[in-house]
Amino acid sequence: MIEINLIRDSKFFIPTPRFKELVILEYIEKKSDVTQKELAQVANAAPSMINAYIDEYEKKGYLKREYISKRDVNYLITPKGIQRKNYLMITYLRELLDLYHLEKRNIENYIESLIDRGYRNVLLYGAGEVAETILGVVRDRETDLNVIAVIDDDKGKQEKEILGYKIISLDEINNYPHHGIIITTYTFEDVIMEKLKAIGYDMNKVIRFFWMGD
Question: Domain residues for 60?
Fold first, then answer.
């Protein structure tokens, strides 16, 4: 089932009517006794619109109402509704894959640019989404870029792993011979730069992911 938080907390994604249709049909398939208030939260839609959506889907034969009482209603997805839901899901996943492959190509080009500049053994600084994306590309393709470890200031992450790569503290970097450090966080980039300067790190070896011109 599509995560509710993915829809509600997204910074860029605005649910389209078609996506709301997918979410509502999928949720009803899993939970027939869902309330309209709950569907509004699931689809990130105004509660006043849910009844209109339900009416539309019922007219199209995607679902039907089962009245338990005057106030209690179950929503039952029909075979046609399941067929429609599956079609919407495949289309949605296809678009997500297209976006993923586009981003993957961008990361691959970025990695090649680092190799061309002489970087081979590197540390990543920031065990977040950007680091995970880079590590996924490095792991899945043959490349001369070797990620030695990932630095993170969060003690709760240290000594753990991200995609099989060890997460270390800044104090440990001298134990890992490397050609440079790639800062993979936007929010704390300036803080990290100051921390590296404070320990006397060679700033010529610092690569800022979000400054592609570095």
Answer: 4-99
- The reply to whether 198 and 123 lie within a common domain is yes
Can you tell me the distance from the alpha carbon of 143 to that of 1, in angstroms, rounded to the nearest whole number? 35
DSSP class per residue in 71-122: S-EEEEE-HHHHHHHHHHHHHHHHHHHHHHHHHHHHHHHHHHHHHHTT--EE
Residue 179 lies in a domain: yes
Between helix 17-30 and helix 79-116 the angle, nearest 10°, is 120
- Least confident range of 9-23, 54-68, 141-155: 9-23
Dump pLDDT digits (tens) for 126-164.
999 889 989 988 887 778 889 999 999 999 999 999 999
The answer to whether residue 198 scores a pLDDT higher than 90 is yes
18, 79: one domain: yes
17-30 and 36-43 helices cross at what angle (nearest 10)? 130
**Residue 94 shares a structural domain with residue 131:** no
d(CA 78, CA 66): 12
pLDDT digits (tens, 9 = 90+) for 68-112: 887 889 999 999 999 999 999 999 899 888 888 888 888 888 888
Q: For position 83, which CATH number holds? A: 1.10.10.10
Tell me how many domains the chain contains. Answer: 2
